[in-house]
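Changelog-adjacent note: as of this version, every example in the card shows the full chain rather than a window. The one below runs 254 residues end to end.
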Amino acid sequence: MVQQTDLNYSTEGKRRAFLFLRWSFAKRTKIAYYTAGKIMSKSLIAVGSTRGPKLDAVHDALKLCAEQLNPSAQFGVLGFAVDSGVRHTPLSSEESMRGARQRTEALMQMASGTGAVYQYFVGLEGGLEVMESTQSHGSNESRAEDTSSTGEGDRRVFLESWAYVSDGSRGHFGRSGGIELPPALAREVLDKGVELATAIDKFAGMAGIRDNQGAWGVLSNNLITRREAFRIALVAAFAPFFNANLFRVARAAS
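Full-length structure tokens:
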């Protein structure tokens, strides 16, 4: 099945028409961008997932930064099912970062074995960050309010989305914001060991949420979706590439 959408956006006063083509099949998804009326060099981006929200997030991020990454490039995106090497639901920022990076490393290893050439490799990983404080702070009244509102005392659990982008020689992380999980949902994942995808389906009374709005959408009443959270993480991870001069100056200064 081919889905075609016209994408129009402006760069230095010039508007260009893009066609978005997407083919889905067994273990990979291809997204290609074509610029009308101009022959451009082809640059492929490998993504370590075949899930729709993640690939759509790459599409959204490229709409924002493709011109800055390479104004003469025609970007194509291929999604591959690779292993993250971490739990289904990472339970720390560190584990989520490791999962995103290891997806990227798996892609680079795959490309090395097949001889395929990619300009960028992208790993995406969603997970939790658990913040627990053993220190007493604030008044007894404020601590009591915290405990009664969350039911978990000083434990706060946040959902995060991470991206890792590499050009094969250097890589950079990007992260979305974080949204707090309700205590009942946090207990299902942390204390009972239920995968977040399963727990959020039960919590919301729906099926297949992670392939749609995601836990982000359920928790924010669809003001922020899983796709949007990964888009933010991706733009942040691509920033050292499309804003290379600033990062180069910052490295030199340090």
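Structural remarks: Residues 1-37, 136-151 have pLDDT under 50 and may be disordered.
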